[in-house]
Amino acid sequence: MAKGDKFYFENFAACTELSKKAALYLVNCLENYNPENIETMLKEMHEIEHSADMKKHEMNKVLAKAFVTPVDREDLDMLSHNLDQVTDKIEEILQKFYIYNIQSVDPAVIDFAKKIVKSCNLLCELMEEFENFKRSKKIHSLIVALNDVEEECDSLYLSLIRELTKDKADVFKVVSFVKIYDCFESCADACEHVSECVGAVIMKNT
């Protein structure tokens, strides 16, 4: 592999580390939730998201000038975009707690956040392997594992939404948490989209 090619894979790895950092911070916020601190939480989360944006801008700048890339330029751009979406979606979850002025957090919400951490951990492993995708013996199992976690999130999403409908006395709570759970599921989908993108790149290049 050409020396310059390492930039792309190092950039992707850095992006997934930032996603993991954001997911871990989300869990910490929810485990120690205090609505009076929500603006501080948002500020710190946005700093992580901004760092991820900077990584995406770095990628865009290099791709704009690159003559030869290790895989198709369009695939690198698509993967960069999908990775950025993961951190964006994690930030969006916390934003919903601010928008709807959530006062307390149920354990099930924290469980959902921990599944996002699980997905981000797998993404980090996937990006560590991606540079050597032609020889890696782990990538396929990591893609399958990410799909499995997404299915776990789908199941949890359905059960949580069903549980919400039992609380017909508090319509605002139902509406608010439906929106929050939608964000969680969208985040899980974003993680899976990254693995699908990696799988597509591998199929095209092996």
List keywords for this structure.
mainly alpha, single chain, globular, 206 residues, Methane Monooxygenase Hydroxylase, Chain G, domain 1, 6 helices
Structure description:
There is one protein chain. The longest helix has 35 residues, at 171-205. The protein has one domain (3-205): Phosphate transport system protein phou homolog 2, domain 2 (Methane Monooxygenase Hydroxylase, Chain G, domain 1, Up-down Bundle), CATH 1.20.58.220. It has helices at residues 6-31, 38-65, 73-99, 107-130, 139-164, 171-205. The protein contains six helices and no strands.
Q: State the CATH architecture.
A: Up-down Bundle
Outline type:
globular
Low-pLDDT parts are: none
What number is the mean pLDDT? 94
**Fraction in helix:** over 70%
| Class of secondary structure makeup | mainly alpha
Task: Note the run of SSEs as H and E.
Answer: HHHHHH
The DSSP helix count reads 6
Q: Could you give a short account of the major beta sheet?
A: none
CATH class: Mainly Alpha
Q: Give the oligomeric state of the chains in this entry, treating copies of one chain as homo and distinct chains as hetero.
A: single chain
Q: Specify Rg, calculated over alpha carbons.
A: 18 Å
Distance between the termini: 15 Å
Strand content: under 5%
CATH superfamily: Phosphate transport system protein phou homolog 2, domain 2
Total discrete domains: 1
What is the strand tally? 0
CATH topology: Methane Monooxygenase Hydroxylase, Chain G, domain 1
